[in-house]
Design goal:
Blueprint: H1 4-23, H2 28-35, H3 39-51, E1 55-58, E2 61-64, H4 67-79, H5 82-96, E3 99-106, E4 109-117, E5 131-133, H6 138-146, H7 149-159, H8 172-185, E6 188-191, E7 198-206, E8 212-220, H9 226-250
Antiparallel strand pairs: 1-2, 3-4, 3-8, 4-5, 6-7, 7-8
Helix pairs in contact: 2-3, 5-9, 6-8
Length: 254
């Protein structure tokens, strides 16, 4: 047996799990067609995953089990520390009325790990666990500004700078200009760079244990505009990021 066979097997198992999640439950036949695999192979995978407790089987429709809650809760609380800082997110959401995100860098992507919901909050593009390209969102750009140059080189080499809208950063020169501005003022702005008509403000939170994250406030352009977008929101967001940083430090997490 070659060394890459077990890795291929693991990768296939996660491909099946991800497809089941995306579809909200599916059958062996649907998995067979979607993944272009032999039916017997798919059956073996879902049977094994069901026996291990990671899938449920309701009349031939397989779905993710609640066993994943254990892993997800552990990652949010012990890796991202999201539970510690969510009260601060809620306070910022109450002040702004918008949605507030806690975004953590992992494997060169921005992972939405925590949130606060204001009275007027909208969330057209993300939920807890969503992964986004760092260069397209305010939280991601704040993180890129805080990361060492070498790590940014690795992320760009691996993921590139894909265009999402006409405003998206797509060259390394543009990215470096943005990183410089963000580092100087302490916050990042997103003006329709991921979704047209959507804006956000974010400030980085960096921990000594290597966790790079950001606090971001997002909302529609018609509400996030003028001095409120350019001055008031940045001040509030930077204040919350500083509060979170001090809170985590007091818990011995920095």
């Amino acid at each position: 047996m070659t060394a890459d066979v077990p890795l291929t097997t693991v990768a296939r198992a996660f491909e099946i799990l991800e497809h089941i999640r995306e579809e909200g439950g599916t059958s062996v036949s649907e998995l067979t067609d979607a993944l272009e695999l032999p039916k017997s192979t798919v059956h073996d995978y879902v049977t094994t995953l069901t026996r291990l407790g990671y899938l449920t089987n309701d009349g031939g429709v397989y779905d993710l089990s609640l066993a994943f809650l254990t892993h997800g809760t552990y990652a949010r609380t012990e890796v991202a520390y999201a539970d510690r800082i969510e009260p601060a997110l809620e306070r910022l959401a109450d002040k702004t009325g918008e949605i507030v995100w806690y975004i953590v860098e992992e494997s060169g992507r921005g992972v939405y790990a925590g949130r606060g919901l204001g009275s007027d909050a909208l969330q057209p593009y993300a939920s807890i666990g969503t992964r986004s390209a760092l260069h397209t969102i305010a939280g991601g750009k704040a993180i890129l500004a805080a990361l060492p140059d070498g790590r940014v080189d690795e992320i760009v080499a691996e993921h590139g700078l894909e265009r999402y809208t006409e405003r998206t950063i797509t060259t390394r020169d543009e990215l470096e200009d943005a990183r410089g501005r963000i580092a100087e003022r302490g916050y990042a702005l997103n003006d329709g760079e991921n979704i047209d008509g959507w804006r956000a403000v974010a400030s980085p939170v960096v921990l000594e244990d290597g966790l790079y994250s950001a606090i971001a406030v997002a909302g529609p352009k018609n509400r996030l505009r003028g001095e409120y977008f350019e001055s008031t929101l940045p001040e509030l967001t930077v204040g919350t990021a500083n509060e979170v940083r001090l809170q985590l430090r007091s818990l011995g997490l920095e």
